[in-house]
Design a protein that fits this description.
Blueprint: H1 2-7, H2 34-46, H3 57-71, H4 79-89, H5 93-99, E1 108-112, H6 120-131, H7 139-146, E2 149-153, H8 154-162
Antiparallel strand pairs: 1-2
Helix pairs in contact: 2-3, 3-4, 6-7
């Protein structure tokens, strides 16, 4: 929710504040992985109408404790959640980074999304640098694409590439 809220008016083009709407689709359509169901269950308990705001630090602390527990079968004293909290208390952030994955990115891929025609040339050049096997590129190329990149489940990205509009340069 915080990430979505931060993107509502990223470019500062809207007057006032943007609005984030979180909804539960009637026809399902939600990812079914355990990490998603854990996030949804914990999020529903702490955030929403009549509940805490997404930037409430106490609610966030409680959310993450419950979130880790849900992901490990509901027991906050065992499993990954307890181990990650122990590492956090010990300030062992390199191990936290290595051991914890909120979303299993093994089954997701980054995709570049172009929303405005004026961005197409710059983004195309950056993507070309990444895909050119003979040239190495520095972190500045990835950084330039970061605001245009989203992770999608691999099957959805592949389906979009197969049925996309335009050539490979447009995906």
């Amino acid at each position: 929710m915080q990430q979505a809220a931060g993107r509502c008016n990223r470019d500062g083009r809207l007057e006032g504040r943007g609005t984030v709407v979180v909804f539960d689709p009637v026809d399902g359509g939600c990812p079914r992985g355990s990490e998603y169901t854990a996030a949804l269950a914990a999020g529903a308990r702490f955030f929403g109408p009549e509940l805490a705001r997404p930037d409430d630090l106490e609610a966030l602390d409680a959310y993450y404790r419950e979130r880790y527990a849900y992901q490990q079968g509901g027991d906050p004293e065992s499993g990954l959640g307890a181990e990650i909290q122990k590492l956090r208390r010990a300030l062992d952030f390199p191990r936290v980074d290595r051991d914890f994955r909120m979303i299993d990115d093994e089954h997701s891929v980054p995709v570049v999304v172009v929303r405005r025609g004026s961005e197409r040339a710059c983004i195309g050049a950056a993507v070309a640098q990444l895909t050119d096997g003979f040239r190495s590129c520095g972190p500045e190329v990835l950084r330039s694409l970061q605001q245009h990149t989203a992770s999608l489940p691999r099957r959805e990205a592949e389906a979009g590439a197969e049925g996309g509009t335009g050539g490979a340069g447009d995906r």
